[in-house]
Amino acid sequence: MVSRVIPVDDFDLVIFGATGDLAHRKILPGLFRRFTAGQIPASSQIIGAARTDQDDDAFRAEAAKAIREYAGAAEDDPQLAEFLALLGYVPIDAKGEGGWQELKSRMRPGAVHAFYFSVAPSLFGDIAERLAGHGIADDDSRIVVEKPFGRDLASARALNATLAQHFTEQQIYRIDHYLGKETVQNLMAVRFANVLFEPLWNAQYVDHVQITVAETVGVAGRGSYYDKSGAIRDMVQNHMMQLLCLIAMEPPYHFDPDAVRDEKLKVIRALEPLEPADIVRGQYQGEGSDYLTDAGDADSRTESYVAMKVRISNWRWQGTPFYLRTGKKLRARTSEIAITFKEPPHSIFDDSGHPKANELVIRLQPNEGMNLKVMIKEPGPGGMRLVQVPLDMSFADALGPEGADMPDAYERLIMDVIRGNQTLFMRGDEVEAAWAWTDPIIKSWEEGKRRPEPYDSGSSGPEEALRLMHRDNRRWREIRA
Fold first, then answer.
1. Was 181 annotated as part of a binding site?
2. How far is CA 103 from the centre of its chain?
3. Domains of the chain
4. Does 264 count as an annotated binding residue?
5. Residue 128: left if φ>0, alpha if ψ -120 to 50, beta else—which one?
6. Over the stretch 41-99, which tens digit does the pLDDT of each residue have?
7. What are phi and psi of 334, to 5 degrees?
8. What SS3 state is found at 186?
9. Per residue in 302-354, pLDDT tens?
10. Residues paired with residue 172 on neighbouring β-strands, in sequence order
11. Active-site hit among 24, 166, 239, 354
12. Is 354 an active-site residue?
């Protein structure tokens, strides 16, 4: 299968924080891959902006090193030289006046203008104000802002209000890289482009849903940052909330940015408040690898793991629980969504084994793909014996080389910014609704002063999380790569 590459319009992209880790690991390598795929016009311009005092050549050398390391470009790759010719650099004082007039002089009339805020949220307002004040951004410009978008409802509202002083909602792209993953988008295609699943996608046929985002790494090296956030702010309020919305939302009237986001917003507003018994928090421990040491605070009560049972109060999902879990230092690195359907109401097969529930598993990482478990007759003589088998579709196997070499989430999302397509980006009211649901949970933890449950590094999480499922006569899926 040959994938289609549709070039975007000529653009000027300014990357604030261009000397930072995200720019080196994701943004610049992603742009290079889109350039080699033929999607970025050779006339486009990519301008790095940061505090570091350097010139264009120094930035190009820095970018080349990052691209060779993270995109696998060869030292003598002619396309790398062509891509580096698109790059420029302007030293910028985000809180002062230095560099802004030079940046303005480099912007070309007629090109799409996009500004990527790969900086701390505390600088969002300063940069937005100067882009508007110096006349660098116009009514057609787009800004991309990274998470964390606030740390609670009040700060998210304040940040939205600050950006709204200079840019309209149609110009603001709040990026969540999970929404750029191929399988996440395929979840919408599976639901809304096939008659097979959507009639069964409700409480009448779905027993429960599990969403798992497990990591093998701890927080060493960024413990002081993570300790101010924890798993619920770092993962649940944004990434996992978005996955939950895509599973649970109603079909939008059209695949249109606001139509999709309207339906996601309805899901968030239908979430029931969580009871204390429906949440488990944990901290990893282990010889030479424990959270308290990595965080640099022996009395920290910040969670590195959280599991919760979520209910949605609407006609489609009333009575069907959604189980969410995410954590550091777990057994394997994996992200998946598992929809478990109800068992057949009656079995006509007496001694051949009880039919097991069908299960649709959507793997986000590693090995993106989908797996549907169905019951069949076990091959061979000897009567009717039932066995559960997977109908497995990995993108690498099903789609050939193009399936194995799918664009990274950042590549796709940045191209969507240039196209002006906000479908896979969060809207301001969506972010605020998510914080409105999350804030009471965090407040109850802070007021309760209860320590998170310990769990061993390399395990599946705290024992209390297992009991969260066992009391409902269910079990977590095994965490494995």
1. yes
2. 31
3. 11-146 (3.40.50.720), 179-406+428-470 (3.30.360.10)
4. no
5. alpha
6. 999 999 999 999 999 999 999 999 999 999 998 888 999 999 999 999 999 999 999 99
7. -160, 145
8. helix
9. 999 999 999 999 999 999 999 999 999 999 999 999 999 998 887 777 666 66
10. 143
11. 239
12. no
